[in-house]
Input
Amino acid sequence: MMYQTNSEQETFDFGAALGAGLQAGDCVLLTGDLGAGKSVVARGVASAHGVTEAMPSPTFVLMIPHEGDLPVYHFDLYRLEDPDEFYQAGLQEYLGGDGIAVIEWPECANIAPPGAVRVEVLRGEGDDQRRIRVKAPENLQNRLAPWRID
Ligand SMILES: Nc1ncnc2c1ncn2[C@@H]1O[C@H](COP(=O)(O)OP(=O)(O)OP(=O)(O)O)[C@@H](O)[C@H]1O
Ligand SMILES: [Mg+2]
Output
């Protein structure tokens, strides 16, 4: 399904609507260009689970855990040079466990857990428009109906 937002706030709200339908063990794979809005979606997802602290980019540390009503593990794998580093660092432990994993640049580690929600953020027309493609079960897609465009 394809969705559209017209501001950072809308994309945050979109992420929050998606996040509200997620539970422990779920995984969101966020793809899209640099600056597309992946981190905005990630912050929205976390906010739905009561994370109120700042969420700085985990680019250099690969993963930052945030404590909400459940743990939200925020990954950014952009700097990974070799997919093996992900496993060597033991990061697979955070997938499918007690929290929600939200992963930016999953392609850098070839991460594709079965059942993961896929979110691709694309630029639209003008500086502030984004198109967001989501592959997820129907119950999650239904939560995103306000932003649906197809
Ligand atoms: N509709 C929109 N949705 C999301 N962000 C938007 C939108 N319009 C403008 N922006 C701007 O786009 C930028 C998105 O930045 P963000 O850090 O989320 O990108 P990213 O995809 O995580 O990039 P990176 O690959 O570097 O991690 C922000 O500066 C935000 O203000
Ligand atoms: Mg980011």
Summary: The chain has four helices and seven strands.
